[in-house]
Amino acid sequence: MFSPDGVLSRVMTTIFDLIVVGILWVVCSLPIITIGISTTCAYYTMSKVVRHHEGKLLREFFTCFKNNFLQALWMNLIFLVIVFILALDLYYIYHQEGNFANSIFIVLVGISAIYLGIMAYYPAFLSRFAMKNFRLFKTISIASFKFLPVTALMLVVFAVMVIGIYLMPWAVFIFPGLYLFIMTFPMEYVLKKFMKKPEEGDPEADKWYYK
């Protein structure tokens, strides 16, 4: 139990890695415009290093950051603009009175949930596939509706995480890493559905992302 390969040691190592990834995510997301690439690299590192024990945590995170920075930056700017517009609309409609305003508010909440559900797939898909942003957005849109239970699960867990951070600000260094770790399980299942299955005997079949 207390050996380097024992259960306790593995659990403590995983918890430590979750915290490190969470701190990296917070620090690299501080400019706000880099939150997309930061989330992409955090997911990639969580899946490859923490779950499948491949590579070194810091090296994998920053290599991913360098390789995907420009593509994720443009998508992140668009994402932030749309989120800002939706938030502004929701705030305005929320303070209006009448049945029509209530109906519009419900519609806007639905649109926001759909958009956030789609974009929740972006970091994982960007970390796994080499696609242009338009094709990538089309692919994650299909995935978000095709795997609706996974989408709903991600939104619920995300909402719980946000509420938890609001109530306990110190948890911002723990909950993001925990959220990403939890999400690797359903998300890896989804990702494999979009990956070409290697032929028998192909060395590619032994890669960590097929395990």
Description:
This protein has 211 residues and is mainly alpha-helical. 75% of the residues lie in helices and 0% in strands. It is built from 8 helices and no strands. The protein has helices at residues 7-29, 35-51, 57-94, 99-119, 122-128, 133-146, 148-167, 175-193. α2 (35-51) packs across α3, α4 (99-119) packs across α7 and α7 (148-167) runs antiparallel to α8. The protein starts with 6 loop residues before the first helix and ends in an 18-residue tail after the last helix.
Question: Brief overview, please?
Answer:
By secondary structure, the chain is mostly helical. The protein is 75% helix and 0% strand. Helix 2 packs across helix 8 and helix 4 packs across helix 6.
Oligomer: single chain
End-to-end distance? 26 Å
Helix content: over 70%
What is the strand tally?
A: 0
Treating each run of at least 4 consecutive H or I residues as one helix, how many helices?
8
Topology:
Blueprint: H1 7-29, H2 35-51, H3 57-94, H4 99-119, H5 122-128, H6 133-146, H7 148-167, H8 175-193
Helix pairs in contact: 1-2, 1-8, 2-3, 2-5, 2-8, 3-4, 4-6, 4-7, 7-8
